[in-house]
Amino acid sequence: MPRLSFGAWVEDAVDWLQSNLTWIFDAIKTVLGGMYDGVNAVLGGGEPLLLAGIFAVIAFWLRGVIPAVLTFAGFALIDSLALWDEAMATLSLVVVAAVITIVIAVPTGIWAARNNRVSAALRPVLDVMQTMPAFVYLIPGVMFFGVGVTPGVIATIVFAMPPGVRMTELGIRQVDGELVEAAEAFGTTPKHTLTRVQLPLALPTIMAGINQVIMLALSMVVIGGMAGAGGLGEKVYAAITQLQVGLAAESGIAVVILAMYLDRMTGALNERVSPLGRRAAAKVAAGARRLKFTHYKPGTAVAMTGVVVLALVAGGLNIAGSGDSKAEEAGSANVGQGQKINMGYIPWDEGIASTFLWKEILEQRGYETGITQLDAGPLYSGVARGDIDFQTDSWLPTTHKDYWDKYSGQLEDLGSWYGPTSLELTVPSYVEGIDSLEDLKGQGKKFDGKIIGIEASAGMMGTLNKKVLKEYGLEGEYEVVSSSTSSMLAELNASIKKKEPVVVTLWSPHWAYGKHDLKKLKDPKGAWGKGEEVHTVAHKGFAKKAPAVAKWLKDFELSEKQLTSLENEIQNAGQGQEQDGVRTWLEKNPGLVDKLAPVPGGAGGSQKGKDAGKTVDMGYFPWDEAIASTYLWQNMLEDRGYKTTVKQLDPGPLYTGLAQGQLDVQFDSWLPTTHKDYWDRYKENLTDLGSWYGPTSLELSVPSYVEGIDSLEDLKGQGKKFNGKIIGIESSAGMMGTLNKKVLKEYGLEGEYEVVSSSTSSMLAELNRSIKKKEPVVVTLWSPHWAYGKHDLKKLKDPKGAWGKGEQIHTVAKKDFAKDFPELTGWLKDFELSEAQLASLEVEIQKGGAGKEKESARRWMDANPDVVAKLAPVGG
């Protein structure tokens, strides 16, 4: 039989879908993610014990006193195990997936019950959905939607759908046909026959189907932890991969409590919604002779009142508690300003250690962090899609070569932070006569013919099977047992306790070499290849999203001693306490956070100024350099402990406010020409703190692709190339008068060119449009301007000096400014920015958009970490 390339066809179909229907997948992801966030905000946002009380009231309403008490005890136990947030995340996933599944499954089951052709067509589809291994559903979920909540919800819906459809169809088909015929005989319409006869009688069976949907949803949500769905699934997955028996038991108990609660409540719900169920419940209660109070169930109104009261109390406490949240770190230590950074890691020791190290560092720097444990495949896929920002455990160029080759176009290598590493086979030191890979030949029986490996997806496993065994003639004699890193370490530990021979895959660095007395088997033939480097890999564009973090990661480096001591500290802290282990390690390595993640100004970046606490009132008019310099100084002053206010004004009111002392300082006085009238009028009540940029210049500019036009003289005779137009700005601007009255006349351009008055924004829009179309255009511009940082432009030379001399941009303050702010006065007198610095700052602010000027200036400061120490030095 010829080889059927079914798998290749599927991959081609998936590639096509990824290339052409991304917008659909993004829309689905947005909707499902929004639903999950909403439910999780409700379930995870309140006081745990009050929410446990709400769950208990629901149990009281549905089942009685004893189930209510057990419910409260069960959820209280989850809280005491510090798994409340994870349990609520899992419950949120179950709720979202189950609701969507039921909304689809019940109508589909009704349709199948009323149409035999639909039933026949659905049956094989449901068979496939129900019998396909659950893990398979995660693959397309991750490929189409990335890692996170959405693939978990999608896979859960598909997996949990069949019983909902089948039980609904079965329930309706089991309704006595004579009852249906009787209803029809009395003239009941098909719609009313369904709603008033079939559905009420089929409700117990349908509710049983809904119960199974919820149970299957819960089981699949746990599996979804492998795709980064979070919650208890992630905890269980971490316990499995790291062989943490304690964590597995705790997480398992939490899952069992959730499962029992959902099972009992959905089962009891039938008694409340079904007439037959209510009748049966009433009969049981009436027949009870002893402990009648245990059968008491409050009415719906009473139960609803209890739920509402507890919910209001929980909400009130949550609102009150939000005001008690941790105060933001002062100064430049709060670089992140709450920006979310998502990290992922493979459960390898150096990956765990470095990830939780950066989690702690980033949180100290004011970022909000998220961490997801994944296998290598979903991890690289998630980083490539941008669902995960970066991961710190890429072994290159060998171990993770396949993943790098597949996703390199969507990834950014931030460099190596550890290396060289080494891959090896290792045996305990008590195994005599085995010192080299060559010594393994003929010794297979000693090791039961097994080499204990790690995850099958790991690159070193491929190298071992395809190269190392072959190179040393070990094929056939040894079987490489794929397991997991934790399983391999457990087998090594068990063998050492029994003094039994064992050979395992290991690598350096690894804490096992510090814990056990092991021998690395020599590789005289170099089959393992050269040592690798451990890299940090981020998604494309990460450096733009978080420039400070990207820079820190590019400079990140740990020695073998540092890494192994960090790993051991985390091992000592225990599972679930990794960050505590990191904090303990950082306490033993003071100053390391400032070295790995220097804040603006280095170690002194967060130091307070001598006048910290004073309020500086700043003003500006909406010129780009004024906006840039003002928000730059607002950030720097707040870093130094000052308080600030910022007001936008026109030049007249701004100079008046400074002269009257209502404002303290502004950074955009163009002297001696542009603002001459204001200076002459108010100079007796102002202080000139000096120039921070200059000389400025007025000019005509063209895109660099316009050949042969390098000077104002070159414009003569070239009017047709530019449609006879020079694109200007506001007609009231001084430079427009100079252009019309002097520049055109000086270079003989009158009559050939029309100066089009518009606005600064219209001029920039025309420039941008022309550049996109590669069309010639000549515009009025000036230096400094962010357009020179964004576009490749030529300033047309002015050999005749028609534009006049350039000006200086000064910082001007109120008269008594030096007396009120002596420290700041010194800083401002020394303030200076180069053209490149100012242009890049303006471009960053343009990217951030209106209303985000302060945050944009902060990003620029993050990318230029020495600026605070240079412009506002403290303690020098």
Automatic annotation (TrEMBL):
Keywords: Cell membrane, Membrane, Transmembrane, Transmembrane helix, Transport
Subcellular location: Cell membrane; Membrane
Location (main, coarse): membrane
Name by which UniProt lists this protein: ABC transporter permease/substrate binding protein
Gene source species: Streptomyces atroolivaceus
Lineage summary: Bacteria, Bacillati, Actinomycetota, Actinomycetes, Kitasatosporales
One family name in Pfam for this protein: OpuAC
Segments forming domain ABC transmembrane type-1: 87-266
InterPro entries reported for this sequence: ABC_Gly_betaine_transp_sub-bd, MetI-like, MetI-like_sf
Topology of the protein relative to the lipid bilayer: Multi-pass membrane protein
Sequence similarity: Belongs to the binding-protein-dependent transport system permease family.
UniProt-listed Gene3D superfamilies: Dipeptide-binding Protein, Domain 3, Glycine betaine-binding periplasmic protein, domain 2, MetI-like
Domain of life: Bacteria
Transmembrane stretches, start-end: 49-78, 90-114, 134-160, 201-223, 243-262, 299-320
